[in-house]
Amino acid sequence: MENTRRKFIRMGGLTTIAGLSGMGVAFSSCSEDEGSGPVDGDNNLNITGVSIPSSMDIVEEGNITLIGKGFKLGDKIQLTPSLASLKPFASEVTSVTDGTVVFSVPIGFATGNYKISVVRGTESLVLGTVLLNLIADTHIPDMEGMTVKGIVFSDGKGIPGVAVSDGHEVAITDEEGIYYLPSLKKTGFVFISIPGNYEVVTTGNAPQFFKRLSSSVSTVEQKDFSLIKVDNQKHVVIPMADWHLANRNNDIDQYTGKVLPDVNASIDKYAADGTKVYVLTLGDMTWDLYWYDNNFGLNEYLPYMNMLNCPVFNLIGNHDYDPYYANDWEAENKYRDVLGPTYYSFNLGDIHYVVLDDVEYINTGGSQGTVGSRNYNYIINSEQMKWLKKDLSTITDKSTPIVVAMHTPLYKKPSLDQNGDQVSEVYLSNGNDLIESLKEFTTVHVLTGHTHVNYRVEEEANLMEHNTAAICATWWWTGKNGYANNHICKDGSPGGYGIWQMNGRDMQWRYKSIGYSEEYQFRTYDLNSVHITAANFAPQSTDSELAPYAGPYALQNSNNEVLINIWSYEKDWTIEVTENGENLEVARIVAKDPLHIISYDALRLNAGATPTSSFATNETSHLFKVMASAPGTTLEIKVTDRFGNVYTESMIRPKAFSLNMS
Questions:
Q1: Cβ-based neighbours of 241, under 8 Å, separated by 6 or more
Q2: Integer Cα distance of 218 and 456 in angstroms
Q3: N or C: which end of the chain has fewer CB within 10 A?
C-alpha cells in the first residue's frame, strides 16, 4: 500500500481524474477562479480531450496521470504557480497511452495553484489550472480508546499545535501533526481550527475545515487535513448579517443587482494589493417560512454565496432551521448537510475567531409537511459552552484578540438613562456565562446580527459587541418594486455590512452602506421639513392610520431643529456642529428615524396592509439633535470615529425630506 500511494495522485480514493471537475477550488485568493475546462478542438500539438480537475492530492516524487489524447514521449509539462513566491517546475512525460499521459512530481514541489502547459519543441499549449496539494504520506497506527485519528499537514509535512475537535473533545496535533480523539461522533464531524497563515480548500466558497464521520463508535476513522500556506497576518473580514433570501420581494434581483456588486467591489478593493479577504455571515441567510412554500432553502442559497469573490464562513441563524422539525438538533440537520458544523473556530493571522450557535429552535407544532410556529430560545447550549471553554484553553496567549460571531445579540439594543448615558442589559439567556468564559482575554469583540439595526455595546472592559444591520435591510421591502426604491433598516441605517481591517493584532472596523462610499456614516434631517402626512406619503391611507407610526413627525415642526442619525456611533466618537462659526449643543436622544417611517410603514399602509410589527420603524439611541438659530442657515457637521476618520456634511437648509434623500 505504501508503494501504491507513492505511485499515484490521490483524489478521494481515485487514481484517475475523469469526472472530478467539481472537486472544489483553491482556498487561496479572493479573485474569480480562472477555470480549467477541457482542451478540445484544433491546436498545433493535436492534443485533445484533456480534462483538468480543480484540485489534486499528490505526493512528492509520485506520478500524476492526466486524461487526454495526442501526448508524446519527450513532451514537457510546465507547472507555473499563480503566486510569485512559488517556483515554477517542468517535468518530462514518462508514459503515454492512447488516453492518458503520466509525469512525475518534482522534488521541492510546494502546494499551490498552478497553470499546466505542455511544451513540445517551440510549441506550447495551456491545458488548464489546478490546485496541486502536496499531501503527507503517513500511516497512523490506532491507539486504544481513540476512534478518530489523522494528520494535519502542509506541503507533505505535519503541522504541530493545531486544534482538532469533534464538537465535544479538543486535541492538539503533536510535532508530526498527528492527532487522536476519543470521539463518540455525536456531531457527525471532526474539524480543525485553521491556524493563522494557512487556508484550506473550498467547495464553492465554503472552506472545507471539516470532515464527516460515520455514526459507528466502534469504527476507527482516519481523517487528514491539508493546509495551504498563505500570509493572512493582514486580512479583511466582511460580516454580512441577515440575508433572508427567499425568492420574494424581488430579493434575488436586489441581491444580484445592488448588494452583490457592492460587496464584490469592496472585496476587490482590499484584495487588490494581495490582502486576504473573507466573508463571515452572521446567520439568517435563508428564511425558514419560505423553505417549502417558495422552494428556497439552504441549497438554493449556495449559488448566491458562491457569487461572492472570496471565501465565506457561514453561521446558523434562527431562520436557517428546518421548520418541519420541532427539535433543535433535528431542525439543524439540513444546515449540517449543506454547510457543515454549526459551531467551530478558526484563526486568521493573529486573530482567533469563534463561530457559535446561540439559537435553540423549538418550533412548536412543527412536523413533516407542517411548518411550526418557528419559536426559539436565545441560548448557547451546555455542550457547546463546554466545547467553547476547551477551544479557548488552546489559546495560551491571553492577549490574542478574540472575535466571537453568533446570530442573536449578547446585549439588548441600548437605551439612554436619565443622564443621557447609554445603558444596555444582557439579552442572551446565558450571556453572563459567555462573558465569564472570555474574561481572561484582554481584547474580545462579539459580532452579531438578527435585529436588522446597528448598535455597539461596551459594558465590559475587555469586550465590545457590534450588532450589525442587515444586508436585506427591512426584509427587502423598501427596495421592492413599487415601494421606496431605497434600502433602509428599521433604525434608519442603510442596508449594509461591516468591513474589518486586521493587521497583526491591530483591528479597525466600520459599517459600509450598500450603494454609498465607506465615508457615508450619517444622515441629517431638517425637522422643519419633516412632516409625515397621509397626503404626502400614503395617499391611499388616512392621517389617523398613519399617525401612530409617524409619532411626533405627524405634526409640523418649526423649531429649527436638525436630527442626525449616526448609525455606527460608539462612545469614543465625537460630534461637532457649528452655525456661522458658533458651536451648537449636541444632544443624544432616543427616537425613530423618519426616513424609515415613510419608506416602510407609510407604504405598507398605502398598500392596504398593516405594517408587520417586526419590520416597523424602531426607536434607536444613535440619533442626535441640535437646534439652529434660524431656518435657513448652513450647518457644518463633523463626526470623528475612534480611529480618527472624519466624516463631514455642509448641511444647506432648508433640506428637503423625501424617499431618495441621503
A1: 281, 282, 283, 284, 448, 449, 450, 468, 469, 470, 471, 497
A2: 48
A3: N
Domain with 160 in it: what CATH number?
2.60.40.1120
Query: Cα–Cα distance between 208 and 314 in angstroms, integer?
Result: 11
Q: Map grid coordinates 441629517 to a residue.
A: 524
Query: What pLDDT sits at residue 56?
Result: 84
CB 622 within 8 A of CB 611: no
- Domain boundary pick from 73, 101, 134: 134
CA angle 141, 190, 109 (to 5 degrees): 65
Q: Rounded to whole angstroms, how far apart are CA atoms 424 and 29?
A: 40
The b-or-e profile of 478-512 (16+ CB within 10 A means b, else e) is bbbeebbebbbbbbbbbbbbbbbbbeeeebebbbb
Q: Which residue has the cell 461522533?
A: 185
DSSP one-letter code for 5 = H
According to DSSP, residue 411 is labeled B
* Same domain, yes or no: 74 and 209: no
Cα distance between residue 403 and residue 429, in whole Å? 20
Distance between CA atoms of residues 355 and 280, nearest Å:
9
Which element (helix H / strand E) includes 100?
strand 100-104
CB 352 within 8 A of CB 237: no
- For residue 137, the model assigns a pLDDT of 65
Q: 437605551: which residue's cell?
A: 415
Domain co-membership, 391 together with 244? yes
Supply angle C-alpha 583, 586, 587, rounded to 5: 160
One domain for residues 474 and 360: yes
Which regions of the chain are under pLDDT 70?
1-43, 137
Give the separation between CA 603 and CA 362, rounded to whole angstroms.
33
Domain count, the chain: 4
Burial of 176 (0-12, 13-18, 19+ CB in 10 A): middle
Nearest residue to 454 via CA among 442, 440, 471: 471
Long-range contacts of 607-613 (CB under 8 A, 24+ apart): 607/540, 608/540, 611/549
Query: Which range of residues forms the domain containing residue 189?
Result: 148-226
Within-domain flag for 657 = no
pLDDT at 131: 87
Three-state DSSP state, 276? strand
Q: What is the pLDDT of residues 89-135, one digit of tens each?
A: 999 999 999 999 999 988 888 888 899 999 999 999 999 888 888 88
Cα–Cα distance between 600 and 59 in angstroms, integer? Answer: 59
pLDDT for residue 22:
29
Flag whether 253 is in a domain. yes
Provide φ and ψ at 290, rounded to 5°: -110, 10
For 327, the grid coordinates are: 427539535
* Residue range 586-609, pLDDT digits in tens: 999 999 999 999 999 999 999 999
Identity at 130, one-letter amino acid code: V
Return the CA Rg of the chain: 28
Residue 84 sits in a domain whose CATH number is 2.60.40.10
Q: What is the domain-level CATH number for residue 319?
A: 3.60.21.10
